[in-house]
Amino acid sequence: MTQMVVSPKIRGFICTNAHPEGCYKNIEKQVDFVKSQFPGVKPGGTALIIGSSTGYGLASRIVLGAGYGAHTMGVFYERVPDDTKTGSAGYYNSEAFHRIMGSMGITAESINGDAFSNEIKEQVVASLKASNRKLDWVIYSLASPRRTHPLTGITHQSVLKPVGEDYFCKTVDLNTEKVQGVTIKPASDKEIFDTIKVMGGEDWELWMDYLREQDVLNPEVKTIAYSYIGPKVTWEIYHQGTIGKAKDDLDQKARIINQKLSKSLGGNAWVSVNKAVVTQASAAIPVVPLYISLLFKIMEEKGIQEGCIEQITRLFKTQFGGKSKPQVDELGRIRMDDWEMREDVQKDVINLWPQINTENMKSISDYEGFKKGFRNLFGFEVDGVDYNQPVEVNRLIP
Ligand code: NAD
Q: Is residue 348 a part of any domain in this protein?
C-alpha cells in the first residue's frame, strides 16, 4: 500500500507519471459512452488487442468488452508501479478496465510485455489454449519507437522524418508554447528500412500466422490495424515520410493476411485509416499538435469532432463490427478519417494554417483543448478528481 499525492511531471510531449484515479475516471467515462451506444450487452466472443492500454487500441478494447461483451486479451508494454513511483497511464487504464469489466460480469486478461517477441506470442496462445478459447477479433494497434526482431535479435529504431528532401514546417514547442519553424533532415535508407521494420506490417503478419498455425482463430475471424493519412500540410513528415512508408507496408501486409485468412477460415484483414487524435504517439510528431489544435476547433464547430472512443465506436457500428463487408477505398482501406478529410473541414485548415502564430494560436485553434487532452491521457485535469488527496498508486492488475 502506498498513498501519494500525484502531480504531473511533464516536459514537452513526455509525461513521466500518471494519476490512477484520473485514469480510472477516463475509462469509466468511455465505458459509459460505449454502453449507451450498445445497449443490452451480453457476454460473448473473444478478442485479442495488441497495444490495448492507450489510444486507439484501448478504445477498441473498451468497445469490444463493454459494447460486444467480448472476453478481451490485452497485450501492452507498460510500467508497473511500485512503492516509490506511479505506474504508466496505460498500466492504470488497464487496471481500471479490469475492475470495471469485472463489475459488468465481463472477463478480461492482460499480458504486459513486448508484443514483438516470440515469448509474448507464445504466452497469448498458451493462455487461449488453457481456457479453451479461440479468437473472433484481433486488433493490431501498436505504436512503438523500437522493435527487437525475434529472428535476428537486431533492434530497429523508428524515426519520424521526411524522405528525400529537407522538410520545413511550422510546429508548436510544447514547453514554450511558441509557434516556430523547424527544418527536419531527410531519413537515410537505413532509417526508412528500420521504421518499416517497427511500424510496418511484418509483426502483424507474424502474429496472424502464428495464431493460425496454433489453431486459435475461429472461422470468420476478423483482424484490423490502424493507419493515418492526414492533410497535405503534414504529408512530407507523415504520409510521404518514413512512417508513411511503414503504413504502405501495413497496407500490403493486410492484403497478404487477408488472402491467408479468407482461404483457411473465411476470415478478413483490414486497415482502417483513422482520424488524428491526441495520443502519446501523435503528440510526439512535429506539426501534428498544431494541426490537431486547428482541426479540433473546426470539427467541434461543425459538430463532427471525435476522440478515440467515438471513432472506434463508429468504426464498429458502421464498418467492422457487423456481418456485412466494410466499405473501402480504391486501395481496400476503411476510411474513418472521412469527416477529418471532408472538403469543408480541410478548406478551413488550409485557410488558417498560414495565419497561425504564437499570438493567435489560442484564439484561432483549440490549443487549450489539445493541452487538456494531452494531460487527460495521463489522468490529469480529469473532472471529478481531487488532486490534493493522496491516492493508492501501487495497484495490481488482477
Ligand atoms: P498509443 O501510443 O496511444 O498506443 C500504443 C500502444 O502500443 C500502447 O498500448 C502501448 O503499450 C503499446 N505498445 C508499444 N510498444 C509495445 C510493445 N513493444 N509491446 C507491447 N505493446 C506495445 O498509440 P495510438 O496513437 O493509439 O496508435 C495506435 C495505432 O493507431 C498506430 O498504428 C497509429 O499509427 C494509428 N493511428 C493513430 C492516430 C493518432 O492520431 N494517434 C491516427 C490514425 C492512426
A: no
pLDDT digits (tens, 9 = 90+) for 356-383: 999 999 999 999 999 999 999 999 999 9
Distance 115 CA to ligand 1 centre (A): 12
Residue 24 belongs to some domain of the structure: yes
CA of 375 to the centre of ligand 1 (A): 17
Out of 77, 226, 238, 291, which one is annotated catalytic?
238
Rounded to the nearest angstrom, the distance between the alpha carbon of 80 and the centre of ligand 1 is 18
In this predicted structure, what is the pLDDT of residue 189?
A: 98
Active site annotation includes 56 = no
- Give the total number of structural domains in the chain: 1
Nearest CA to 136 among 317, 271, 314, 265?
265
Within 13 Å, how many C-alpha atoms sit on residue 115's CB side?
30
- Residue from 244, 242, 205 nearest 227 by CA: 244
CA distance 60 to 311: 10
- 306 within 8 A of 54, measured Cβ to Cβ: no
Domain harbouring 274, CATH code:
3.40.50.720
- The residues, any chain, with a CB within 8 Å of residue 14's CB and separated by 6 or more, are none
Domain extent, residue 95, equals 3-288+305-341+372-392
> Which of 14, 30, 54, 338 is the best mutation target for the ligand 1 pocket, counting ligand atoms within 8 Å of the beta carbon and taking the most?
54
- Pocket test residue of 27, 48, 157, 226 for ligand 1, highest count of atoms within 8 A of CB: 226
DSSP one-letter string for 308-365:
HHHHHHHHIIIIISSSSPPP--TTS-EETTTTTT-HHHHHHHHHHTTT--TTTHHHHS
The set of protein residues with a Cβ atom below 6 angstroms from ligand 1 is 51-57, 75-78, 90, 114-116, 141-144, 226-228, 274, 276-277, 279-282
Residue 99, SS3? Answer: helix
Indicate the pTM of the whole model: 0.97
In angstroms and rounded to an integer, the radius of gyration of the C-alpha atoms of the chain is 20
CA 62 / ligand 1 centre spacing (Å): 15
- Residue 220: partners with Cβ closer than 8 Å, 6 or more residues away: 136, 265, 266, 267, 268
Dump pLDDT digits (tens) for 305-314. 999 999 999 9
Going by CA atoms, what residue is nearest to atom 5 of ligand 1? 143
Asked if residue 178 belongs to a domain, the reply is yes
